[in-house]
Amino acid sequence: xxxxxxxxxxxxxxxxxxxxxxxxxxxxxxxxxxxxxxxxxxxxxxxxxxxx
Length: 52
Hints:
By secondary structure, the chain is mainly alpha-helical. It has one helix and no strands.
């Protein structure tokens, strides 16, 4: 009985860790896209300012 409980606990821990990692990856991706968009807007403003 104890080995079954140990396996279930280990599986639960791995599932929780996987879920947390996926959420962190989604947050990091969203932040990277936000930074890229901000840099693109900044670059566009610079190009418009410099253009004759």
